[in-house]
Every structure is written in structure tokens, then in C-alpha cells.
Amino acid sequence: MKLWLKVFLFSLTFMILAVDIVAYTILVNSFSSSVTRETNQTLILFDTISATVSRQILYERLKQSKILLSGTEIDKALNEIVAQYGSNKTHMIFYHDDKPVTSYEAYPLKNNSNFRDQVISGDQLCSTIIDDENKTFILMGSHMSLEGDDYVLFIGSDITPLYSQYDEQLQLVQIVSLVSAGILATIMLLFIFKLMHPLSRINLSINQLAKENYTLRIEEEGSPEFRELSRSINILAASVERNVKEIQNIADGRKRFIDSLAHEMKTPLTSILGFADILRIKRKVSNKEREDFSNIIFEEAKRLRNLSGKLLELFSSTNLPLDFNTIDIKEFIIEICIAVQPLLFTKHLQISCNVQEGITLYANAELFKSLFYNLIENAVKASNSGQAITLSCRSVNNDVMFDISDNGIGMTKEEIENATDLFYTSNPLRVSQKNDINLGIGLALCKEIVNRHNGTMKIMSQAKGGTTVVIAIPKVGMRSLNES
User: Fold this and answer.
1) pTM exceeding 0.90
2) Which of 20, 41, 63, 344 would give a disulfide with 349, using CB separation of 3.0 to 4.6 Å?
3) How far apart are CA 20 and CA 14, in angstroms?
């Protein structure tokens, strides 16, 4: 059973029961009050008749100047009383010595022998309500003494209209209850449909999310609860969409990596196998050919070694736990500048180191060396003979800033955006130098090293205008992260 139907049936049943119980309680209380009022009126009538009988007997005695009236005279007085008070609504009967003396329409009194015997055998006023011949009566009876003799007076009041009215009101309540239930059901259905509409809309949206439509967003409308639910689902959808994109990017990146790695390894392996096979099967090989073939095999094997070394270094920086120590930046930069002198010497380049005094950094020294070696090596390969490379370091707020600049061939906007991707091959410098693997792996390695130090790396360049790599490393960020 659907939720809206459960809510509808439960609410409708509860409200109908509540209305019926209230109406029935009011009706019963009103009817009970009416019965009590009729009983009191009958009692008043009974007392009035009793008093009238006593006065009439006293009047007749005084009128006739007798000490006591005879039984016949008493019966005559009682007949006058019965004629005076008897009516269609009021029934009367007098008993003397268990025999009726006079009566008026006394069939309900005569037919109820149990009540008559109860009153005659007792000595108190008794009353009851009976049904007789499709009518309802209040019966009341008690003993009274007349001229020393015991008489019993019974009266009955017809309250059939009261019960008929009660039955009509009860029937009316039932009809009104049914009509009200229909009207209430219609109103509640409209209300529930309006109330549940946001839930239906949210359910349809969730179904769309289940069908991988992660771009869908739900309008935040309705009651506060539905707005909060819509907001939570939108946050979930955005998170799922973001994670799916990240996973897709990772998958695409891995595919590009595998494709590029296969491509990178295919060329040197083909050369090595080809020239090795020539040396193996060719019977006569001149010294010149042997030297050329050996040099080619050596260079291609060295290229494979460099490629595997860089990949291993990248893997180590990405997956292995690192040790961090406090580094004196000035001593560290001087050491770097000395270590890269042979590399600079091949192209007659100069390096200028500008380091602010007293800067220390909490970092992994070996990874930092690899970071600057790769950046300087890229700067060397992008520079022309005789140009200069600048390496500077300064403290800015809570960060240590490094700038590595050259005046080389520069990079286009597209090349900057893709420079840190593994095996990126759009750079013309990479195409022109087949042994250069740093532009394909080196910058990706640099980016990963900076990320492991909770820092940022930004490349600023323009074609034929040189390149500047700006690196910002938090002074205490890695210490806090490592200690936690």
C-alpha cells in the first residue's frame, strides 16, 4: 500500500471516528438530559396529583361535616381526579386492596405487572421506563393513605416523541457523518496530493539519478522538510557527479598513460631489437657500422632506463610514505646550483640564485632535489646557448615562494594547460628531442611532489617569451599534516 493511501485512510478513519464520537456523545448527553427532565416533570405531576387528592378528600369531608368519608365517597373523588388529570399523554390508575379503583388509559400500567407488584409490595416511590405497543412510557407509583385506608397511585407519561426525536437525530448524525466523510475525503485527497507532490517529484528525480542522470537538480520548494530533502539530494547528486567525473578522468588518464607508455617504449625497443638483429644475422659488419649500431642501441637503452627511472620516481612520490625534516633553504639552493653546473656547461648557460636569508622549510629533501633538478633541466632544454636561468626564493606570509625562470622558447596556453600530464607530446621541444622524457614525466613528477608538500605550482609562459614556474609551499602545513 502506498504511503499517500496509508496517510489518507488513517487520517480519514481517525477524523470520522473523532467526529462521530463527539456527535454521539453530545447527542446521548442531550437525550439523557431530556429523559431526566421528563422524569422530573412526571415526578412533579405525581406530587401534584397526590396533593390534589389529599385536598379533595379534605374538602369533601369538611363539606359534608363528616369525620371520615366512606369508600364510595373516596372512589367518587378519585374518579374526579382521574378525569381532571388524565390525558393522551398522562395515564393514571388507583389501586385499593390490590384492585383497581379507577383509571384512565392505564394499559401500560396494567400490562407491566412486575412494576405494579414491586410498588404494591414496597413502601417507597418507584419509577421505571418501559416500551409498550411501540410506545415508551415513564411509570411512577407509590402508596398513599386516604381516610385510614391504603391506596396506590400509578401514573404513566408518554415520552415516545422524545425517543422518536432521539432516533431521528441519531439517523441524522449518521447521514451527516457519511456526507461529511465524503466531503472530508475529497478535501483530504486534494490536500494529500498537494502535500505529497514534492515527494513524487523527488522520487522521479531519484529515479533519474539511478539512471545515471547526475546533472539533474531538484527545485527546492514545498515545506521546509521537503526543501531540506531536495537540498540534500542535490548535494548528493553533485557529489556523485563530481566523483563520477573524477573517476572518469582517472580512467581516461590511465588509458592515456598506458597508451603513451606503450608508444614511448615501442620506438626504443624497436630500434634496439632491429639493430641487435642486424648485428646478429649480418655476416660482415664494418667497424663503422658496428660502432653506429652500438651507439644507437646504447642511446635507446639509456632512454628506456631514464624512462623507467622517472616512472619509478613518480610512483615513489605518489604512493610511498615520506620522511620530512627541516631544511635550510639557502644551503639547499646553493647545493642545487652546484649540482646542475655540468648540465649548464653543455649549453654555456648561467644560473642566478637569489635566496632570502633565514628561510627554513619542513619538507622531504630528496623529493625537493628531484623537483628542482627536473625544473632546471627543463629550463636548460628550453634555453638557447648563452642564456641565463634564475632561481629565487622568498618568504611571503605563511608560504615559501620559489621562482624558476628562463628566457627560452616558452609555451603556448594549450601547452601550459597540459604540461603536467603524463607523456604530453604537443610541446614542439619534446617532438624535436626524442631523448627528452622530462617534458612528458618531469613536470607531472614536479606537480606530484608539490602536492605531497601541500603546495601549489603555477606555470607562466608565452611562446618565445620564456617560462617562469612559481611554487608556493606552506611553512608549517606539512609539519601539521605529518604530526596529525
Assistant:
1) no
2) 344
3) 10
Looking at residue 383, what DSSP letter applies?
A: S
User: How do beta strands 399-406 and 388-396 pair?
Assistant: antiparallel
Q: Show pLDDT as tens, one digit a residue, over the chain (484 residues).
A: 666 677 777 777 777 788 788 888 888 898 899 999 999 999 999 999 999 998 988 888 888 888 888 888 888 888 988 888 888 788 899 998 888 888 888 788 888 888 888 888 888 899 999 888 788 889 999 998 888 889 999 998 888 888 888 888 888 888 888 888 788 778 877 877 777 777 777 777 777 777 777 777 777 776 777 778 778 878 888 888 888 888 887 777 667 666 656 655 666 777 788 888 888 887 777 888 778 888 888 877 876 776 666 666 655 555 556 678 889 999 999 888 888 888 888 788 999 988 988 899 988 887 888 888 889 988 998 888 889 999 999 999 889 999 999 998 888 888 888 887 766 654 444 443 444 444 456 788 788 888 888 899 999 988 888 899 999 999 864 444 444 4
How many helices, marked H, and strands, marked E, lie in the chain?
A: 14, 12
Query: What is the phi/psi pair of residue 387, to 5°?
Result: -80, 175
**Residue 167 CA neighbour count, 13 Å, CB half:** 7
d(CA 76, CA 100): 13
Specify the 3-state DSSP secondary structure of 413. Answer: helix
CB of 293 closer than 8 Å to CB of 286: no
Q: Which whole-number Å values give the CA distances from 168 to 20, 33, 183, in the listed order? A: 15, 17, 22
Single-letter code of the amino acid located at 172: L
Interstrand relation of 456-461 and 388-396 (parallel, antiparallel or unpaired): unpaired
Per DSSP, 301 falls in state H
Supply the DSSP string of 309-377, one letter for each residue.
HHHHHHHHHHHS----EEEEHHHHHHHHHHHTHHHHHTTT-EEEEEE-TT-EEEE-HHHHHHHHHHHHH
What pairs with residue 294 in β-bridges?
none
CA dist 337 and 332 (Å) reads 9
Q: Which of these, 317, 324, 316, 322, lies nearest to 476 by C-alpha position?
A: 324
CA 131 to chain centre: 63
Distance in Å from the first CA to the final CA of the chain = 52
Q: Give percent helix, percent strand, percent coil of the chain, each to the nearest 5.
A: 60, 20, 20
Picking from 435, 415, 411, the residue whose alpha carbon sits closest to that of residue 425 is 415
Q: Supply the DSSP symbol for 152.
A: E
